[in-house]
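User: Please predict the structure of the protein below. I'd like the answer in structure-token form so I can feed it into my own downstream comparison script.

Assistant: Understood. Taking the following sequence of 245 residues as input:
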Amino acid sequence: MLNLRKRKPQDRQEPRGKQVYAIIPAAGSSHRMGGGNKLVMEIGGQPILCRTLQVFENCEEIDGIILVCRKQDQKIYAALCADWKISKIVKIVEGGPTREHSVLNGILACDSEIGYVAIHDAARPLITEDIIAEAVEQAKKDSAAAPGVPCKDSIQSVKKGRMVENIDRDDIIAVQTPQCFDIDLICAALTKAVDLGMKLTDDCGAVTAIGQPVTITKGSYENIKITTPEDVVLGEAILKGRMRK
């Protein structure tokens, strides 16, 4: 059974407000980190999860935060949020079997005054307030926006282990988070994606699949996702570089 909370019909008919909530999916297994929960690992003396949440806590464009995680992590994360004084946490909800399910659970936990959501990977602790603000403001204009950076490497299409076609770098962008949307748009897109069993790499994929373009805003090469032990080393180096500026 899908772990989705259904809105009541009267909820769907209520006019949406203009508040912006951050949806932070944090229900992953961290298997590529080699064991343990990477979100409680420290970077720059602060747990990765709390460093991520702290940026949204400080961002004026964000009115509240919904954290989505595994049931067994809820008390641990709640305690961490209390220790690091993350006061914008509104709800901690249980994740689902896939990222799409987890994000949708977070969206369905939003009340009617929420008009927009900023969906951000819990493991991207080096996000900045400026990147969040720009994506949110663009989403208010275009209904969908996400930060991105140009690809630096040569890109090739590969079949059976062999390069078969060069792809123009100018037509490729590396999409980051937060990915920001009108809440009704992303709710409809993710609901359809879940119903169809679509395999997505991000939330923008669900939106473009229903024909809605996503505006690209300015990202940063520092906005990395902590996935492997090497990323922790890189993240520490980025933080040290910021302290020297």
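That's the full token string. The CA atoms of residues 31 and 175 lie 22 Å apart.
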